[in-house]
Fold:
Amino acid sequence: MNGQELATAAQYGATPLVIVMDNQEYGTIRTHQERHYPSRVSGTQLKNPDFGLMARAFGGFGITVTEDCDVPAALEAALAAIDEDGVFALIHLIVQQRVKAY
Structure:
């Protein structure tokens, strides 16, 4: 939950594929707040960075995806970066916030 794993991957030449599913909130915590303290949600909305850019800042491959149809191409490019360039890859998926189910 802090991103420094990217620095470690870059420093040691590790080549993981990281997928960040970003719904701009701490969803599990928010669910508990809504369930136990209705109308008292606090501190669960997030303003996140562009994790694709952050990955590139650490020397890896990074891409941000906002449309479902772009996922296959992003995955292909990420795997190519790992295989051909020998760097870690990160796909930042912007997803919708969940809809209250109760």
Notes: Helices lie at 4-12, 27-36, 51-57, 71-85. The CA atoms of residues 61 and 77 lie 9 Å apart. The mean pLDDT is 89. The radius of gyration is 16 Å.
